[in-house]
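Office hours follow-up: a student asked to see two folded examples consecutively, so here they are.
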Amino acid sequence: MEKWKKKTMNQMLTDANKGDSAALYMIGGCYLYGLNEMPINVKIANQYFGASALLGFGPAVDQIKFKNLEEVHNPFMMIVYTNLLASLGHREFTFIYHELRGNALQKFGLPIVEEIERLALNKKVEIYSYQEEMKKAKDKAKYISSLINGRSIESEDKKYGKDYWFAIFEANNPSLLSQKS
């Protein structure tokens, strides 16, 4: 963190255009908090966080996890991102994930937990795919720009709203349907 305090925005942009996921995250933070003389712009901040997350940077994935809890109000996707963080090697999330998994298993059943784990695995595969594309990109700045301006690890998340999760729960708990009648 200390090295980033000494960098100018131009230096961070140079690093980001080379594929530095931490630089992308820090630029997102500058836009979110108005640092380095940047105007506060949450939309742009989220684009940088999204690009950083696509390249597997843990703090950016954590930012998306919190967004799902606090802004989107989707606790199931928050659990997906907690699983993803643990699988990316952030061991501080392993116990938290297992605790959340146990609660979800008890309250909603195995099919919900299996879907959470399937989505987390798909997101991890997606991250590895983007990391490989990044390594192979001849014009890294152009590739990074495409991540910032269009691609996002969250691009599919809207379809995983409450109706999606309720359908899984309802399909696997037919006794609830007979109780409604």
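And the second, which I mentioned at the end of office hours:
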Amino acid sequence: MSRTVDIIVIGGGHAGVEAAWAASSVLPNGTVAFLTMDA
């Protein structure tokens, strides 16, 4: 299975959330992958 995304945001801290929000604003019909990791 393969998937295509327009933007990948790595990290779920404050900056990561802001980056994902900004990406969704710039590309309203695009797809954003949001990757986080719990240690």
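Two things to take away from it. The two ends are 27 Å apart (CA to CA). The chain has a mean pLDDT of 87.
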